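pinned: reference chain
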Amino acid sequence: MICESSGIKILLFLSPSVYGGFSMGMKSLKMENKKKEKLFMRDFFRKAGKAIYDYDLIQSGDKILIGVSGGKDSLALLEVLALRARAPKQEYSVVAAHIAVENVAYEVDGKYIADFCERLGVKLVQRTIQSEVNEGSAKPVCFVCAWNRRKALFEIAREAGCNKLALGHHRDDAIESLLMSMMFNGTIASMPPKLDMFEHAFTLIRPFIYLTNEETRQYAVYRDFKNQKKKCPYEKATNRNAVAEIIRQMETLSPHVKGNLFASMKNIQTEYLP
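pinned: its structure tokens
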């Protein structure tokens, strides 16, 4: 008898021995996927931990404010730092903060963020601000919005008694910022893993500096993070997206271009510069 329908119905016509073999194969595949996920998670936490160790990002007694936009990077950072804080000898605490921008047409599920923080046992501070949105301004809308959100985070950190602010920027962000600085500003600058601010009274840290955008994307898939309801309308109209495309083209010439660009920031040979 010939089955005319989907693979699911075909199974109904298989002999017990064939069906049993198929079932075992599916079980084996699930086990293999679980193994891959476990190895990925271990490597993900290892890279974050290595950055924290290499750059001395977290010390005993730190109270860290984590900026949570609702995107994959900030959710992953919150989860990683909150879980690490529970481990023995990790004597630091974390607080989460979400800044909503009232006059920018994007929407984030605030309840999802609140529930996410509650599951982790992390206090969440939510604040709504306004940002100047002038598309004809010399400063890009995204730059102005990001700066206003950053100022709000500084205020919350001070109010909450936090001595550090952790952001979810990763290696790809740092590489793109390097090229943007060179191409549009004529300077060599990027996103440092650790930046002392306000005369060393406050420190900004980026524990994901060794991780890539693809790795945080895969982490979000494994952890089943919920996407934002509506993304920012200015998100795609930035120099960062254009630079990311340039880097993708550069990778066709060398698969190691991202690693080399990142390494170049710690290997500046000033004697060969003007």
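why pinned: The longest strand covers residues 93-101. The chain has nine helices and six strands.
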